[in-house]
Design a protein that fits this description.
The complex is a heterodimer of chains A (about 525) and B (about 260). Chain A has about 525 residues and is mainly α. Chain A has two domains: about 240 residues, no CATH class; about 230 residues, no CATH class. In chain A, helix 15 runs antiparallel to helix 16. Helix content of chain A is about 80%, strand content about 0%. Helix content of chain B is about 40%, strand content about 25%. A six-stranded mixed beta sheet of chain B has the order 6-7-8-3-9-10, with helices on both faces. In chain B, strands 2-1-4-5 form a four-stranded antiparallel beta sheet. By secondary structure, chain B is α/β, with parallel strands linked by helices. In chain B, a hairpin with a 2-residue loop joins strand 4 and strand 5. The chains are: A mainly alpha (about 525), B alpha/beta (about 260). At the A-B interface, helix 11 and helix 14 of A face helix 3, helix 4 and helix 5 of B.
Chain lengths: ~525, ~260
């Protein structure tokens, strides 16, 4: 027990004890912005849930909703749980260190799983509980629903936790086998992100349609029959739901308990038997890398740096996902967002504002992709010294990185433009005008992000040499990118009404040009001196 | 061989590294990590840099290589001022860091080629040097593997090859022998001697007084950021007394 408490304290301290920037103003600002964003997102979530529940209740599909919701949230918890279990339990950076000390594997496991349970509890209370409560009110459940709710919530925590633990070991083995198949990993990530986003946006679209016209059904009659049929067979989510709403309550309660206990027991036995050996095997196998025979060749310094930077991103699953995957999946995401925004905007204001909304969506995704640039210096980590000793001007090194970021984002932007033009969301001229504006804003955002990172880079890298925490520069860049996008969107909508699209887009183009030039100058002036001052002790 | 000796002779008079009244203080630090350090290294010599942990050895090396800016003084490498013409100065340096950090996602060959590209090494030269060093350090078998899977010693060897790929005038090594097997240590020592015989200079820091006394032409002892002694080991009895002198200088300071 003493071992466990010591390890738990260490774990808590490692996660929450050293995140301060040391600058009270920045910390307060960060908390403030995060809080505002958090409240906005959470309010939108609660509002969306309320609409969704009302819709299902209206069409007498409340049980189906409850089953689908429980199944969906359990699935999300399992997916994130697997990744979290692998990251925090099996591949935690301190495992190798802890194994050298006279502490038992059980104590290490218990201390790490406790944090994971804590996250699950927070998720359940913040995300699942409000839905259950809203559902209870909207579908007018009696006292037994609320009395059994805590039991179901416990099931909702324990079951995904157990399944994640059971699946983590095979998933780990699979990821170890595919970790050097970079193209395949990127492709799978892109497909998964695009698919998940498309499904998500279709659901949102359904809610919007419902809000637009309450008489219009979210599902067609045929779909409703299919949903009702499918829901009956989604185990054990249907048992949890039946248990709550009082349909076949005793049987459902017994089966729910049985499933939860069996999975928990299975996970306990598996971890008891395999935790230590899996950690040791993984530590042993972590050095397994690829072999690629290439020839020696001569490249120009700038091109060599460009290729090196690209390979560093491409061969990191973390960076590849953050940047390349997002850039490749952006056209799909922009397409669906545009579709949704257009249907909402058309309904409330008119079709005329669609180009401005499309521009806003394009800019938001540019900001998401290019906020990655704000860690261009920090990502060098322990290799930062190399950028200092090599006979290549700091300015050239930074320009090469800028070129890479803009090259990838411009391709993504062009594909997006063609997609929204071909799908009829915008005319050719409007689409390319939006693309031009987005390109200029991309330059501005990228230069801004890199400028921040050259002023105050952070080099907190994990055991794999990668940036382990999001830098403040990335956060600020993302925020500024969002603000610009919203302002452009708002101005665009108003402008189109007042002066028409041509004049509005020309004004925005001019403003973007000024922003791009200003941001580039802010980055480049004094860059050599600023970079020289960066010091990694 | 005669040609090499002639070159060495001609270069012997040349100052390869001039550190003049160098001062360096880290941000948020009250004391100078390097305080008024003045040193001159000649072409063709192996120069040892001794000091306790925290004495300022690595900081000095990081200032020489351009990693750290410095507050005052100057560093001239083969005639190029690190502040006024850093690119030319850096072209003359090959640096082996103490933590052997490299771009681990690249293969050994990709990494060496990248470094060679930045120093503008021709294809013929890089192939000849790469093959020679890979054979010398016995890591030819691993050159097409991703560096992430290398052992500490192998990473150190890749760092050394990358530092030598452009045949630098000044070869700077920070604790180069850490993590290396004895054979590789002998190979590095041989390479240091060969490098200086061609008129180049080797500047390395170490905690191994025995190695320094056997290998170096001259040695500097630094303590608390200040130069305490500059010893010519060719003078009679200096090699034998180096350990005693080092202990005397550093311990006296500690007691004081």
């Amino acid at each position: 027990m003493k071992e466990f408490m010591t390890l738990l304290r260490l774990e808590l301290k490692a996660r929450f004890g050293t995140r301060g920037t040391g600058k009270p103003l920045i910390t307060v600002l960060k908390i403030l912005i995060l809080s505002v964003l958090g409240i906005l997102v959470y309010s939108a979530y609660i509002f969306g849930v309320r609409q969704l529940v009302s819709m299902f209740v209206l069409y007498k599909m409340s049980t189906e909703f409850l089953i689908l919701f429980i199944a969906g949230s359990q699935l999300i918890l399992v997916v994130f749980g697997i990744s979290s279990v692998i990251k925090n339990l099996f591949r935690s950076g301190d495992n190798e260190l802890l194994m050298r000390f006279p502490v038992s594997a059980t104590a290490v496991f218990a201390s790490k799983i406790s944090i994971f349970v804590l996250y699950q509890v927070i998720f359940t209370l913040l995300i699942e509980l409000p839905v259950f409560v809203i559902f209870g009110i909207k579908s007018m459940q009696n006292w037994s629903y609320y009395a059994l709710l805590p039991v179901v919530l416990i099931f909702c925590i324990v079951l995904p936790l157990s399944i994640s633990n059971l699946l983590a070991i095979p998933v780990m083995q699979l990821s170890s086998r595919t970790k050097n198949m970079f193209t395949l990993s990127l492709l799978v990530s892109v497909i998964m992100v695009a698919a998940a986003f498309a499904i998500y946006m279709r659901v949102i679209q359904g809610v919007v349609n419902y809000m637009k016209e309450e008489a219009m059904s979210f599902f067609s009659k045929e779909s409703m029959i299919i949903v009702a049929k499918v829901a009956k067979y989604i185990y054990p989510a249907n048992w949890f739901a039946y248990m709550l709403i009082g349909e076949w309550r005793i049987g459902a309660s017994f089966l729910s308990l049985l499933v939860v206990v069996l999975f928990a027991l299975g996970a306990f036995i598996l971890n008891k038997k395999l935790y230590l050996s899996t950690i040791l095997r993984d530590i042993e196998g972590s050095g397994a890398t690829f072999t690629m025979t290439t020839r020696n060749h001569v490249r120009r310094p700038a091109w060599a740096t460009f290729c090196r930077e690209y390979l560093e991103i491409f061969r990191s699953s973390n960076y590849s996902f953050q940047y390349l995957c997002m850039a490749v999946a952006a056209p799909v995401m922009v397409y669906y967002c545009n579709k949704l925004a257009a249907s909402m905007g058309e309904n409330s204001i008119g079709a005329v504002i669609v180009p401005a909304l499309a521009l806003m969506v394009m800019l938001i995704f540019c900001a998401i992709i290019l906020s990655f640039a704000a860690s261009s210096v920090s990502r060098e980590g322990d290799n930062f010294y190399l950028t200092k000793i090599l006979p290549l001007r700091y300015r050239t090194q930074i320009l090469v990185k800028l070129a890479l970021y803009l090259f990838v984002s411009t391709i993504s932007l062009l594909v997006t433009t063609v997609a929204i033009w071909l799908s009829g969301q915008m005319t050719l001229s409007s689409a390319f005008a939006a693309c031009g504006i987005s390109f200029l804003v991309s330059i501005a955002v990228t230069c801004f992000g890199v400028r921040l990172d050259t002023t105050r880079p952070q080099f907190p890298v994990g055991g794999d040499g990668e940036l382990s925490v999001g830098s403040i520069s990335t956060f600020v860049t993302l925020f500024v990118g969002f603000v610009i996008s919203v302002l452009y969107g708002f101005f665009g909508m108003v402008g189109i009404f007042l002066w028409g699209i041509t004049k509005t887009f020309l004004i925005l183009m001019g403003v973007s040009l000024i922003l791009a030039v200003g941001s580039a100058l802010w980055l480049m002036i004094g860059l050599e001196k600023r970079y020289e001052r960066i010091s990694q002790r | 061989m005669e040609e090499i000796m002639n070159v060495a002779g001609a270069e012997a008079r040349k100052d390869m590294l001039i550190i003049d009244h160098l001062k360096k203080r880290y941000i948020n630090s009250k004391r100078y990590s390097i305080n008024d350090l003045t040193l001159t290294l000649k072409a063709g010599e192996i120069f040892g840099f001794l000091g306790q942990n925290g004495a300022g050895k690595s900081t000095t090396i990081k200032c020489i290589t351009g990693i750290h800016p410095y507050d005052s003084g100057s560093i001239i490498i083969n005639g190029f001022d690190m502040k006024k013409d850093p690119i030319s100065a850096k072209r003359n340096i090959g640096y082996v860091p103490d933590n052997h950090s490299v771009y681990e996602k690249l293969t050994g060959r990709e990494y060496i080629n990248y470094i060679a590209d930045l120093y503008g090494v021709s294809l013929e030269d890089r192939e000849e040097r790469m093959n020679r060093y890979l054979k010398m350090f016995k890591i030819t078998f691993a050159v097409d593997r991703q560096i992430r899977g290398y052992s500490h010693g192998m990473k150190q060897k890749i760092c050394i090859i990358a530092a030598l790929i452009h045949n630098p005038k000044l070869w700077v090594l920070d604790e180069p022998m850490v993590g290396l097997d004895p054979q590789s240590m002998f190979d590095i020592i041989d390479e240091m001697k060969k490098h200086t015989a061609e008129g180049n200079t080797v500047f390395f820091s170490s905690h191994n007084i025995d190695l320094v006394s056997k290998l170096c032409d001259r040695v500097a002892i630094i303590h608390d950021g200040e130069l305490k002694a500059l010893i010519d080991l060719h003078e009679e009895g200096k090699r034998e007394s180096l350990e005693t002198v080092f202990r005397g200088l550093t311990m006296a300071e500690n007691l004081g």
